[in-house]
Amino acid sequence: MTLVQAIILGVFQGITEFLPISSSGHLVLLQHFFGIKEGNLFFTEMLHFGTLFSILIVYFNDIINIIVEFFKMIGDGIKNRKFKIKNGYQKLALLIIIGSIPTAIIGILFEDFFKNLYSSSLLPIGISFIITGLLLWIANKKPYENKSVKNMSFLDSIIIGIFQGIAIIPGISRSGSTIVAGLLRGLNRNLATEFSFLLAMPATFGAGLLGILDVVKTESEIAFTMPLLIGIILSTLVGIIAIKFLITMLKKDKLHYFSYYLWIIGLITIISHFL
Prior knowledge:
globular; 12 helices; mainly alpha
């Protein structure tokens, strides 16, 4: 892995992981058109941890409060023999746990199927790009609703978790699909965005750990090099910028701008399949 490749992949990971344009779909395109590979498995998994750091930094205060309040709820429940949700942070913790379950189930059951999509033709990826763009367009044009954490149901989190699981398909954006699911369930824009990224943490961390296990099992190269460090730092910093940019676009009702990009690249991908 050269320094230039590490820089390209670090920036690429930070941008596409959080903007609703599908990092997996773009990776396939990079591999197909430009011959740019992810590199060894260890490098790939560490880049994902870099984007995990982005979420930790942007939502640091909320994450700390969620963790603290969750253990308070557990402690009070054990002490009083009755579990009761006392505030929004405690409810968010439960919503994240519940929403992560369908994501994990889908990921485990359909792991081989999703992996095969990476090596298949460009046609399903191009179609997935267009579908993602359509979902973003529909969600952005949907009338405003203002459901808060207090009003959010466990069914909401399950549905959003299912969308996150489906987003393992190359060309379907994880952030885009979960934000769309949140908006379609009536969540306000800030909550839909925040919950999308908070829900990504268990999935990213879990997938990262499984990825590291795969590295060990396959005896792939494990090396902490300068290019690796640069790649992680860049994926983290660019990820922070991407998250803040997406939040701004949502506040300005410009989520559909990503639709135009996805439709164009989707059409190009489909046409390339037939050439």
